[in-house]
Amino acid sequence: MLRWELDVSPLISTKSWLKNYGLKKNKLNMYHILPTIGFKLSDDYDTTLKRPVASRYGSSLFQRAFRKDGHTYNLKCSKEKLIQIQNRLKQVLRLFERRLSWLTSESRRTFGVIEEKCVTVVLDIKNLSPQQFNQFIGAFQMVLEEQISRISKFNLIRSADNMKLFKESCVPVTHDTIYEAIEWIKSFDRLEPISSTAPCEAVVQALKDTSNEAVYILTEGTSIDACRGVFIEQLTNSHPCIPVNVVSYNCDNLDTIQYLRRLAECTNGRFHAYAVTMEMVTYDDDAPQNGSNGDSQVLLKRNMYGGMPEGAGIREDVLLLFEEFEEARNTNQFIEDLIKEGDWDPPKKKDEDPKKAARKLARMIQRKESSMGSAEWLKRYGLEANKLEFHDALAKVTFDHVEGVTNSFNAPEGQDKKLVDAIYCETLFPAVRWTDGTIKHVIVTQDIHRTYEQRITIALNRIQERIKWLTKGSRALFGTIIEDNIYILIDCSKSMEENIKFVKEKVQGLIQEQLRHKKSINIVSFGTTVETWSSRLVDITPQSLHSAQSWINALSCTGSTNTYGAIKYALSDSRTDGIYLLTDGCPDQ
Q1: For 308, which DSSP code?
Q2: In what residue span(s) does the VWFA domain sit (predicted)?
Q3: How many C-alpha atoms does 136 have within 13 Å on its Cβ side?
Q4: 482-582, what's its fold?
Q5: S-S: 378 plus which of 66, 162, 382, 414, CB 3.0-4.6 Å?
Q6: CB 445 within 8 A of CB 404
Q7: Spatial distance between the Cα atoms of 90 and 103, rounded to a whole number of angstroms
């Protein structure tokens, strides 16, 4: 089974998914982009000329773009902004590609997407060949493992003369009930007799359970042909609020497929069709070696290939996502052409008031310091950065110790030259060993010493203030938050019950002191399950901070410690810069 990102694989309709991740939500469609990279061309209706007129002054100054609603925009912005928009579009395109792959693979290809949280599935299998019967069971087993295992409640009914129910009503989804359901469908008798009204009776039985949000019927179609009118009449007269979603499996009769589509539409249900077009046998020789003789096992695999049967049309959920994908690709191409062809130098700004600029710079520096780690801070304000270390401070007041060769008036035997050191400086100038190993003399006057003393005192005071600042408030527990896009993971398992009040107070302080200066945050609590304040990172605003604090105050402790699930959720957000985990011990899942 493939692994899919959390934002790719929600069990919701494409329409709902696009509301969370589409171009409009990300403000990346042409309707939102054009006003940010240009300005609208002025136009009006001239009563004298009795026709619409538009300004022409910018025709030779700006590139122009036309929006679908008829408005024209003069384009003018920086190249950097266009590149930023293009990078965001590329991220969205990659997300759309992954969602398309998810929709058209595995159980979503054969069954569609189960969008409801409580469902009953009617299995209509009528005397298929052994090969087709096994395909049917294998396909639905994949649905159980990949989709039904992620909803809240389910039930199964087999359509037959002697109708078989997995349970009397919908049961909660657990590991045991899913395993029991798989064993139940594997026990089906292929030659079980099925009357012409059995599928209708099974669906009516499913509709009696009012806890259902939807009923699904998985059928190959032949057993329904004999009771078409009765089936539609029964569904129309049954529970009107529960939709019946029809899944056609391996039906090759176009007339039956069209009837099944109408059957779904009469209850406001959805229709999905799938047919196996080819089965390919492959051999896997990468299996573990067998015993001590070292022989490898060769496993036989049957891979099925299929899709929408001829005449069934195109899946609506795939078509809707593909149209959004094409719009994103066209928009990306439009931005790419602008970057290549346009002159995107930013307009010159008027000179800013020097005092106002200085205050703005001071605020930026102060804000920057509060987001620095100690290593970065020392690179800017440490002794080395201010050239206050020993050798840096003395670099301008040193001179070399001189050695040389001189003539000797009383030459020793066998020699007429002798190496001597300068002796005039031995008592005048202190000697120090330099970084390269040489000996140098230094001249330190009172003025030099006084100036250095003042500078080193200022630097040390600044370091001491930084140390005190680091040990106050939220920084004493969390340190300095240096990332801009942050996830806070809070352990809300049963073992945290005694400490949760302390954790809440500290996180509230962290929000007030540090997180309000960041770009975006999200908060995740985890016990047995993972709960989130928001589905993705949320931009920092007074309203979002107030919402986050209220959500934190409402947290309670229960269950085990699913640390992996919380970290996995945070890492699935592509904008995440940093994750802060608050827990009292090791995960137990």
Answers
A1: S
A2: 147-272, 485-589
A3: 26
A4: Rossmann fold (3.40.50)
A5: 382
A6: no
A7: 20
Residue with tokens 């801070």: 377
Question: Is the CB of residue 38 less than 8 Å from the CB of residue 74?
Answer: yes
What is the C-alpha to C-alpha distance for residues 440 and 442, in angstroms, rounded to an integer?
Answer: 7
Amino acid at 130: P
**Backbone φ, ψ for residue 488 (5° rounding):** -105, 120
Q: What is the mean pLDDT of residues 197-212?
A: 91
Q: Which residues of 160-179 are buried (b: 16+ CB within 10 A; e: fewer)?
A: beeebebbeebbebeeebbe
> Lowest-confidence range among 75-84, 159-168, 238-247, 300-309?
300-309
- Is there a contact between 425 and 419 (Cβ–Cβ < 8 Å)? no
Tell me phi and psi for residue 170, to 5 degrees.
-60, 140
Q: Which residues pair with 433 in a beta bridge?
A: 439
Burial (CB < 10 A; 0-12, 13-18, 19+), residue 72, is middle
* Residues 578-588 pLDDT 10s: 999 999 877 76
Nearest to 157 by CA among 112, 105, 110, 194: 194
Q: Single out the residue of 499, 565, 503 nearest to residue 528, CA to CA.
A: 565
Residue with tokens 């299998």: 125
203-224 burial: b if 16+ Cβ within 10 Å, else e: bbbbbebeebbbbbbbbbbebb
Amino acid at 104: T
3-state secondary structure of 299: strand
Pick from 268, 249, 246, 250: nearest CA to 259: 246
Question: 153 — phi, psi (to 5°)?
Answer: -135, 155
pLDDT at 356: 63
pLDDT at 184 over 60: yes
Residue 160: partners with Cβ closer than 8 Å, 6 or more residues away? 192, 193, 194, 198
User: In this structure, what are the phi and psi dihedrals at residue 119, rounded to the nearest 5 degrees?
Assistant: -140, 155
**Token pair in block for residue 47:** 């009563």
Q: Across the strands, what pairs with 563?
A: none
Q: What is the pLDDT of residues 108-145, one digit of tens each?
A: 999 999 999 999 999 998 766 888 888 889 999 999 99
Domain 113-314 matches domain 482-582 at the CATH topology level: yes
Rg (CA), the chain: 37
| CATH number given to 113-314 | 3.40.50.410
Work out the average pLDDT over 554-574.
90
What are the DSSP E strand ranges found in 270-421?
Answer: 271-284, 289-290, 295-296, 299-307, 398-400, 403-407, 417-421
CA dist 480 and 212 (Å) reads: 50
Q: For residue 218, what pLDDT band results from cuts at 50, 70 and 90?
A: very high
Show me where the domains of the chain are located: 1-105+320-347, 113-314, 374-407+415-470, 482-582
Task: Tell me the pLDDT tens digit for each residue of 28-69.
Answer: 988 888 888 877 765 555 555 555 555 555 454 566 676 666
What are the percentages of helix, strand and coil residues in the chain, rounded to 5? Answer: 40, 20, 40
